[in-house]
Amino acid sequence: MTRKTRASIKAVLTVLDKCTDWMLLPSKSETLRRLRRLADNPPDFAQEFDKFYRGSVQEGINRLQRKGKVEVRETGGGTEVRISDKGRTEVLKYKLEEMIINIPQKWDGKWRVVVFDVQEIERSKRDMFRDYLVKIGFKPLQRSVFVCPYPCGKEIAFLREVVGVPHGVKFMVVEKMDNDEDLQMLFEVG
């Protein structure tokens, strides 16, 4: 038997993000079998929540509801919950934390350059974008110019949308860069 744990906010949001609509939550008196009969959702969602103590799931749902990240409604079958747009944004931020750039066996000789110009009024977004660039392996050329030798166009597109700076960021694939020997040494390519 798998040992149960407390449900973190991240765990609750991640499970709810898999749902496309309202999900029936088990109350303390409902068994998992009854939940599966009542829920319109596939059983694996119920099994996801079965890994956690029910009280911690309910506590997490209550906190998320107060923050506007989930919507809760009572029905004849029990309590139903679904993730809100604000909650989906939070899930995307969790996915950013797990994002990595796949490093190919052999470097293709091209540099990936990100240039951004985000206004001072959006400083927190700019700083967050910069921090994520460094986290996924980019190195600064200047304050708002970063470089990486590996394919990462999809990752940068995802990052700029989630952070909320889609128009202030330009992504380039550069085939030739003068004086790039120091970068080749820094990234150990070439």
TrEMBL record:
Gene Ontology molecular function: any one: RNA endonuclease activity
Keyword Metal-binding: yes
Record-annotated Transcriptional repressor PaaX-like central Cas2-like domain positions: 105-183
BP-aspect Gene Ontology terms: DNA-templated transcription; maintenance of CRISPR repeat elements
Transmembrane segment boundaries: none
InterPro entries found in the cross-reference section: CRISPR_associated_Cas2 (IPR021127), PaaX-like_central (IPR048846)
Protein name stated in the entry: Transcriptional regulator, PaaX family
Keywords for this protein: Antiviral defense, Endonuclease, Hydrolase, Magnesium, Metal-binding, Nuclease
Entries under Pfam families matching the protein: PaaX_M
Family annotation (PANTHER family): PHENYLACETIC ACID REGULATOR-RELATED TRANSCRIPTIONAL REPRESSOR, TRANSCRIPTIONAL REPRESSOR PAAX
NCBIfam families xrefs: cas2
Organism of this sequence: Candidatus Amesbacteria bacterium GW2011_GWA2_42_12
Keyword match 4Fe-4S: no
